[in-house]
RNA sequence: GCUGGCGUAGCUCAGACGGCCAGAGCAGCUGAUUUGUAAUCAGCAGGUCGUGGGUUCGAGUCCCACCGCCAGCUCCA
């Protein structure tokens, strides 16, 4: 029987029933045959070696695509499992999926994997790959599978759990075997182990079975696999690049901030240079808040436990709060993990009318959250941090317009700091929720509409909203493509209820306002940490703590250097004169290492002509004889805070 | 919190098997040098070897506990 397949480009191919994807790829071209790892027929992924028996839409998956790499990595995970079972008899294996940029496999084994074990395993994997063992697919009944995997309890659990995404539909399960090693797997796989060109094991760690900390802890090995040595090298280079940008290294190295051990985990201090950047961030934040109609409020760092009872934090958040201090007549005081209850009290400090709404309160509020020791991560996840927190109280009718405005605000803010790629998550009503389902729907709809209006690419995270309301989290991509969660806009139905907030409406009926929590930077500390990584420590001119270093060539140019500095300072620039007796090369190197955006070199010629030599960070070639007044004006202009506000 | 790894000067690192006064480079200080675009030379100073116990004639090296850091799990701004 002749079958007919439609390819993605709209062309058609025909072939006899029983022909394989490999044959088909070969018929199209030898390059494609080499790159092919699987085919997709009517949405179903099949091994290259699977005989095709139906016509339909067909796509050949190559190892240059993410899908193709997933298959590659999945196969690499199998080979890893094979190596572990070879080298560590008695170990049992759980699951080994592909993940972003790699794969992992979890093992039940009493021996933790050490770095030297990884080298041994890698060697064993190389042998298995060199042997070019074919992956052979087979279906079997569940009963038979239970027999085959009888000594592997995790596999048994998977077989019994009937999760089709892990095994197969119906009563049959599929397994893949190569040279005596059998793994439960839905496939597809590459045709043979020899197709794995570039595999590397990266690290080992513990991981809970099924991601549940109450279940057994397994030993996980992470690895990566690529279609070529070249791609693997590029990936490893990307890892190095990320390491080079690590804010935990750059922060102390550039004298921005530090985490003195004496303070305890997750608590940082800002040095003057980091403090300058923070000041500029905060100035900018306040300016934008003012522009968008926010008012500034301030609140203390602690409050009686009763407040947190009313707000619901003691019920829902207590495990993240520091233990109470007992004062005076036994009153308990708690350090704040959030600012919202304080702002609610400001709202409630007097009667409110519809004429007052919306009320938008903003605060750079220091909060403290008890984070489990293992999750602390530099400035990105600290125990003490500052939220650029705001709470907007409005009517239901005002909600859509307010959300539009908040999103606009967030995007302006992020753009100003050099981010241009945004992705939003819209988290909707979870199973456990408070409030009126209809109101939820209205709010979710309004959030969605705001995203569409703002032209922000987004995905809907069904059921992932907080119990008190739906939310938008805005993520950015940094210079090297990493995704960071930054801003958040959350609708809250619970807090106005808990505190019995109300306003007098036009018909003189008291109604409950809706509340919007929003943080544009999220946490100032975290935002700053991300900025350091985004810019690799080389801040743009408007944010750089030291904008210009003036380096006299010799002592006799020092006076002129100081005049240059004064001129620059007079137009608002932050300047430093390097009057040390080092050679010029050393002064340049020092300024570049400290990532100062501009170095001005002044020598005899410059003194005579009122010019400077100009060298900018990131440029290898300097400019000579640049007239001072011009460059001062140009830099002053460039150093202004950005303004991406519409209108 | 869990699993594993790690902790020697401000930073990056040396310090087989436990054994004379714990080393280097950079940074710092002092002096010399006055230099036109990514490291001038010399000298000096700097360490409770994360903390506390223990084993030992003797501990930076071995054991235990705690603290902190790193990777991941879980959780999250």
Characterize the structure shown.
The structure is a single chain. This protein has 647 residues and is α+β, with helices and mostly antiparallel strands. It folds into 4 domains: 2-62, Roll (Ubiquitin-like (UB roll)), CATH 3.10.20.30; 67-241, Threonyl-trna Synthetase, Chain A, domain 2 (Threonyl-tRNA Synthetase, Chain A, domain 2, 2-Layer Sandwich), CATH 3.30.980.10; 288-295 and 345-534, 2-Layer Sandwich (BirA Bifunctional Protein, domain 2); 548-638, 3-Layer(aba) Sandwich (Rossmann fold). Helix content is 34%, strand content 28%. It has 20 helices and 33 strands. An 8-stranded mixed β-sheet has the order 16-20-21-28-25-24-22-23. The chain has a 5-stranded mixed β-sheet with strand order 2-1-5-3-4, sandwiched between helices. The longest helix has 22 residues, at 66-87. The model has no long low-confidence stretch (mean pLDDT 90). The chain binds one RNA strand of 77 nucleotides through strand 12, strand 13, helix 8, strand 25 and strand 28.
């Amino acid at each position: 029987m002749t079958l007919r397949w439609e390819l993605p480009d709209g062309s058609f191919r025909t072939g006899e029933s029983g022909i394989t994807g490999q044959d088909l790829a070969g018929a199209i071209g030898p390059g494609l045959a080499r790159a092919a790892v699987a085919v997709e027929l009517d949405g179903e992924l099949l091994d290259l070696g699977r005989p095709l028996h139906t016509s339909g839409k067909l796509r050949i998956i190559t190892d240059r695509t993410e899908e193709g790499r997933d298959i590659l990595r999945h196969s690499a995970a199998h080979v890893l499992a094979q190596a572990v079972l070879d080298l560590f008899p008695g170990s049992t294996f759980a699951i080994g999926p592909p993940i972003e940029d790699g794969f992992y496999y979890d093992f039940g084994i009493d021996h933790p994997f050490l770095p030297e074990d990884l080298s041994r395993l890698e060697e064993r994997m190389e042998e298995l790959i060199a042997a070019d063992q074919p992956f052979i697919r087979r279906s079997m009944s569940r009963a038979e599978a239970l027999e085959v995997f009888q000594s592997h309890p995790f596999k048994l659990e998977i077989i019994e759990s009937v999760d089709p995404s892990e095994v197969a539909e119906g009563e049959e399960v599929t397994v893949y075997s190569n040279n005596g090693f059998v793994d439960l797997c839905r496939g597809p796989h590459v045709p043979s182990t020899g197709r794995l060109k570039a595999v590397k094991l990266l690290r080992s760690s513990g991981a809970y079975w099924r991601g549940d900390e109450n279940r057994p802890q397994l030993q996980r090995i992470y690895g990566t696999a690529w279609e070529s040595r070249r791609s693997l090298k590029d990936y490893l280079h990307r890892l190095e690049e990320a390491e080079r940008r690590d804010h935990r290294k750059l922060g102390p190295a550039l004298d921005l901030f530090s985490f003195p051990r004496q303070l305890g985990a997750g608590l940082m201090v800002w040095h003057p240079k980091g403090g300058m950047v923070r000041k500029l961030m905060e100035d900018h934040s306040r300016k934008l808040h003012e522009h968008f109609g926010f008012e500034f409020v301030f609140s203390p760092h602690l409050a009686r436990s009763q407040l947190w009872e009313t707000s619901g934090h003691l019920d829902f958040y207590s495990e993240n709060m520091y233990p109470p201090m007992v004062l005076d007549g036994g009153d308990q005081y708690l350090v704040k993990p959030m600012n919202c209850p304080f702002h609610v009290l400001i709202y409630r400090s007097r009667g409110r009318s519809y004429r007052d709404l919306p009320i938008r309160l903003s605060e750079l509020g220091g909060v403290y959250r008890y984070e489990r020791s293992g999750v602390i991560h530099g400035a990105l996840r600290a125990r003490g941090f500052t939220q650029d927190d705001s709470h907007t109280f409005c009517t239901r009718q005002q909600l859509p317009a307010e959300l539009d405005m908040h999103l606009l605000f967030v995007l302006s803010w992020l753009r100003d700091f050099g981010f241009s790629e945004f992705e939003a998550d819209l988290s909707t009503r979870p199973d456990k929720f408070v409030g009126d389902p209809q109101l939820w729907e209205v709010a979710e709809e309004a959030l969605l509409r705001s995203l569409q209006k703002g032209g922000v690419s987004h995905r809907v995270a069904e059921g992932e909203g907080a119990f008190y309301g739906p939310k938008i989290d805005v993520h950015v991509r940094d210079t090297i493509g990493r995704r960071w969660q930054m801003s958040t806009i959350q609708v809250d139905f619970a807090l106005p209820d808990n505190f019995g907030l109300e306003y007098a409406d036009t018909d003189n009926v008291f109604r409950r306002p809706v509340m919007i929590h929003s943080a544009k930077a999220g946490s100032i500390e975290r935002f700053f940490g991300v900025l350091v990584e985004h810019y690799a420590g080389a801040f743009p001119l408007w944010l750089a703590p030291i904008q210009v270093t003036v380096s006299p060539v010799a002592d006799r140019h020092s006076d002129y250097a100081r005049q240059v500095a004064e001129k620059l300072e007079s137009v608002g620039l932050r300047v430093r004169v390097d009057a040390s007796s080092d050679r010029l090369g050393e002064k340049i190197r020092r300024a570049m290492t400290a990532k100062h955006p501009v170095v001005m070199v002044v020598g005899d010629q410059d003194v005579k002509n009122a010019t400077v030599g100009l060298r900018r960070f990131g440029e290898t070639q300097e400019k000579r004889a640049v007239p001072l007044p011009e460059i001062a004006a140009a830099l002053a202009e460039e150093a202004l805070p950005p303004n991406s506000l519409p209108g």
